[in-house]
Design a protein that fits this description.
- It is built from 16 helices and 22 strands.
- The protein has 496 residues and is of the alpha+beta class.
- It folds into two domains: 197 residues, Beta-grasp domain (Ubiquitin-like (UB roll), Roll), CATH 3.10.20; 222 residues, CO dehydrogenase flavoprotein, C-terminal domain (Enolase-like, domain 1), CATH 3.30.390.50.
- The protein has a six-stranded mixed beta sheet, covered by helices on one side. A five-stranded mixed beta sheet has the order 4-3-7-5-6. A five-stranded antiparallel beta sheet has the order 12-13-18-14-15.
- α8 links the parallel β10 and β11.
- α14 runs antiparallel to α15.
- The longest helix is centred in the last third of the chain and has 21 residues.
- It is globular, with a radius of gyration of 23 Å.
- It starts with a strand and ends in an 11-residue tail after the last helix.
- Bound molecules: flavin-adenine dinucleotide and FE2/S2 (inorganic) cluster (2 copies).
- Flavin-adenine dinucleotide binds next to β10, α12 and β18.
Length: 496
């Protein structure tokens, strides 16, 4: 069954095995699958193949949380358990992991503590959202974060309940006692870890679908050279929707989630290096320590289930004009490391975005990492996200600004926006208005006046052109005012 593959010249190991099946745990039971459509979602698999219908389908796009399950993965010598949306998660990515569904918690005769509390506190009416809510609370229960109203709100931000209202659900969450991650599956999970590339090739209704799951950069570049048109898949929080919402058929996928080098976070005196495959949930502390306001915005990207899967590299590579990470990182002076079989190049992040839908990414190339300079003592950094809802919503405008302040004079001014142009973009004229000038209200207002010459924002469902411009201008002023007051200013509820 196994085949021997030759690897690229640059690899230390010369030979790697490949296998054409996946093995994972479902509620503690080991399952082997060789003929699955690799883009079948975990939700479809649970409901249609395993008749585990406790996990519900609401939106099929990661927004409602009805499909929330726990995804267990080995983290060193322990199991790390996180809530994810099964509706946008591909089965191909499940090799070596464990899926825990609501069926694994309790039974009607012996309910789990959270199930009991939700029932006792009247946290369920029609019950459709309840399994997802219970799973999100189960993730919170085993999280090492201290439980508070804030962490409960964060854990539930990705779970919609239409009929009960959140009061009783929050009461149930407040009453639950903390728990350790169940490590019962540890030995089984450890036995499923391996260095082989998984290579699935399955005929689905006449379409040949290929799914590669390499473990090293060498294997990744070798496969990508062979299959330059393959879809690269990281967390799948964008790609998943191409299948579930746009009904796209993805014939060849290269999954980046197990390439160890892409998940690395490294630090030296001057810079933080974040691998392209690092998930928001893993990057947030490092980035938030360097740039607290960046951390605040990342905490508002999607909801916990999305941040537990979505990656920094995926947010950059998709080239979306409304992605949140690009403006945050461009303002911080980040650089992008792009890698192919024979080359590695480093470019300023802003240069990656050429025009709408076009990035500076050659065939056979992928995003390897982002280099983020550490702030200097004289540096000021501000970041704001404006969206209709606080969490789980895409930005109408996202703005970040960085500058150095010496003797009251601004230098190294970098102002970047998302939602204001066809790509994430720097505000060159607004920057010029501040560069070399005093950090005063008069000069920040000069930057405000210069901003319309930097952007012609679009009108869409999220926000009108004039709203976007007005809010983008106000954010410059807000940054200055907050700096003067040394405290956040919340003018309107919607303006946070
Ligand atoms: C419910 C929901 C809420 C969301 N909320 C937000 C939000 O608030 N703010 C926001 O910015 N985004 C949001 N998103 C979008 C999405 O979560 C992010 O864009 C995320 O960072 C994508 O990362 P991923 O790892 O899931 O990428 P994937 O979906 O795996 O890939 C995205 C794209 O990047 C490419 N790609 C991935 N990694 C690489 C790489 N290393 N090199 C080259 N190409 C690569 C893929 O081929 C694909 O084109 C949301 C999505 C959902 C479903
Ligand atoms: S079904 Fe709505 S988030 Fe998955
Ligand atoms: S109980 Fe009906 S949707 Fe929440």
């Amino acid at each position: 069954m196994d085949t021997v593959l030759r690897r690229g010249e640059r690899d230390k190991e010369r030979i790697v095995m490949a296998r054409n099946y996946i093995q994972f745990l479902l509620n503690g039971e080991t399952i082997t699958e060789a003929h699955l459509d690799p883009t079948m979602t975990v939700l479809q698999y649970l409901r249609e193949r395993k008749m585990k219908t406790g996990t519900k389908e609401g939106c099929a796009e990661g927004d409602c949380g009805a499909c929330t399950v726990l995804l267990n993965a080995l983290d060193g010598s322990k199991i790390k358990s996180r809530s994810v949306n099964a509706c946008i998660l591909f089965m191909g990515t499940m090799d070596g992991k464990e899926i825990r569904t609501v069926e694994s918690l309790g039974t009607p005769e012996e309910p789990h503590e959270i199930q009991q509390l939700v029932a006792e506190k009247h946290g369920s009416q029609c019950g459709f959202c309840t399994p997802g809510i219970v799973m999100s609370l189960a993730a919170l229960q085993i999280d090492s974060m201290p439980k508070s109203r804030k962490t409960i709100d964060e854990a539930l931000a990705g779970n919609l309940c239409r009929c009960t209202g959140y009061g009783p659900i929050i009461d149930a969450a407040m009453a639950m006692k903390p728990k350790q991650v169940n490590q019962n599956s540890l030995a089984k999970l450890a036995s499923l870890q391996h260095n082989e590339t998984v290579k699935l090739s399955v005929n689905v209704y006449g379409e040949q679908k290929r799914f590669y799951d390499p473990k090293t950069l060498g294997e990744l570049t070798r496969i990508l050279t062979e299959r330059p048109d393959a879809t690269l898949l990281a967390g799948g929080t964008d790609v998943g929707l191409w299948v579930t919402k746009h009904h796209k058929t993805l014939n060849t996928i290269i999954y980046l989630g197990n390439v160890e080098a892409l998940s690395a976070i490294e630090e030296n005196n001057n810079n933080l290096h974040i691998g392209a495959g690092v998930k928001y949930a893993d990057a947030i502390n490092n980035l938030g320590q360097l740039y607290p306001q960046m951390g605040d915005v990342i905490r508002r990207i999607g909801a916990a289930q999305v941040r537990n899967l979505g990656t920094i590299g995926g947010n950059i590579a998709n080239g979306s004009p409304i992605g949140d990470m690009p403006p945050l990182l461009i303002a911080a002076g980040a650089k992008l490391v792009l890698r192919s079989a024979n080359d590695e190049r480093i470019i300023p992040l802003e240069d990656f975005f050429i025009e709408y839908g076009k990035q500076d990414l050659h065939k056979g190339e992928f995003v390897k990492s982002t280099i983020i300079p550490k702030p200097t003592p004289s540096q000021k950094y501000f970041a704001y996200k404006i969206s209709k809802r606080f969490e789980s919503d895409i930005s109408a405008v996202c703005m970040a600004m960085s500058l150095s302040l010496k003797d009251g004079i601004c230098s190294n001014v970098r102002i970047a926006y998302g939602g204001m142009a066809a790509t994430p973009k720097r505000a060159a004229n607004a920057e010029k208005a501040l560069e070399g000038q005093n950090w005063t209200e008069e000069n920040i207002r000069r930057a405000v006046v210069a901003l319309p010459s930097d952007f012609t924002p679009i009108d869409d469902l999220r926000a009108s052109k004039s709203y976007r411009m007005q809010v983008a201008q106000n954010l410059l002023l807000k940054a200055w005012l907050e700096d003067q007051n040394n405290a956040p200013i919340h003018v309107l509820e919607a303006d946070i």
